[in-house]
Every structure is written in structure tokens, then in C-alpha cells.
Amino acid sequence: MRRFALLLLPALLWAGAAGAVLPDEQLADPALEARARAISQGLRCVVCQNQSIDDSDAPLARDLRVVVRERLKAGASDAEVVDYVVDRYGSFVLLKPPFEPATWALWLAPFAVVALGAAGVAAYIAARRPPAAPAALSAEEQAQLDEILRRSES
Q1: What burial letters (b/e) apply to 56-94, b meaning 16+ CB within 10 Å?
Q2: Cα 130 to the chain's mean position, in Å?
Q3: Pure H helices in the chain
Q4: In degrees to the nearest 10, what's the CA dihedral of 135, 140, 142, 148?
Q5: Cα–Cα distances in Å, from 44 out to 22, 77, 128?
Q6: Which of 13, 27, 93, 146 could form a Cys-Cys staple with 33, CB 3.0–4.6 A?
Q7: Rounded-to-integer distance, Cα 124 and Cα 94, Å
Q8: Using CA of residue 54, residue 58, residue 63, residue 66, what is the dihedral sign?
Q9: Domains of the chain, residue spans
């Protein structure tokens, strides 16, 4: 049984890498199909949001894969195909969106969270430190204190 599992594991891993591209979507030209797959792997499924359209089984992802292949068959460059999809869905459709004002929060939020966490840790450590020891009394202050104590004893 263990040998069977070891033999089955590579087959399962290979099958998972195939993605959701159906045979009827694939192009006859291997070079165009490779370009289509590369483009599809960089486009986000707007339904699933955490998968590329190459990996998604959603009907909209299938439609986008077909559009990508149609645009490539029509002679569009890879950049033109990506621009075509971005024009319709916005830069959200890109799995690696560009650094622009609309996506600044997306790119900078992780750094802000880390900075806030570091500030919180620093504040926590500072609050746990014991207060500094009071400064020693000067000779004049010590004389005044001795005088006050002597008066209170009498």
C-alpha cells in the first residue's frame, strides 16, 4: 500500500499542475498555447480572487481564458492581451498589480502593519521597564530634610 501511495503522489502532483484549462480551450499551435498559459497564470480570477484564471474552474475564468486565446489568435501581443483584460476589469485582475496610486495601500499595508507592530512592541517594553531611580539629594536638600526630620521628632 505504501508503494502504491508513493507511485500515486507524483501523478497527483502533475495532475494538479494541469490547471483548469479544458481541452476544447487549448490552441493547436503549441507556441500560442504556451503564451496563453503564461498570460492566464498572471491574471486573477475575479470570482475566486485567490487563483489565476489558469487554475480556476469558474465560468468567468473560462470565458477570460477563451478571450485571451482569441486575442492571441488575432495577432495581439502579450502586452496587448493583458491591457485588453485590464481595461475591462481594472488592475485588480492582475495577480501582480503595478505600484500606482490605486494600489499603494495594497503594496504598503504590510510594511505599515509591521511598523505598527514594532511600535507596539517598543511601547510595551518601555512600559515594563522599572522607573529610573530618583537622583541623590544635594547637600543643601539633605540639610533641609535633616532639619525637617529633627523638628518633627521634637
Answers
A1: bebeebbebbeebbebbeeeeeeeebbeebbeeeeeebb
A2: 39
A3: 2-17, 30-41, 59-73, 78-89, 104-128, 139-153
A4: -130
A5: 18, 19, 46
A6: 27
A7: 39
A8: positive
A9: 8-97, 99-129
CATH number of 8-97: 1.10.8.640
Say how far apart CA 153 and CA 71 lie, in whole Å.
100
Sign, Cα dihedral of 140, 144, 150, 154:
positive
Residue 133 has φ and ψ, to the nearest 5°, of: -65, 140
Tell me the per-residue pLDDT of 95-125, one tens digit each, with 9 for 90 and over.
888 888 888 888 899 999 999 999 999 999 9
DSSP, residue by residue, 122-139: HHHHHHHSPPPPPPPPPH
Q: Mind listing the pLDDT tens digit for each residue in 36-74? A: 999 999 999 888 878 899 888 889 999 999 999 999 999
Hey, what's the cell of 10?
A: 507524483
Give me 45's grid cell.
Answer: 480570477
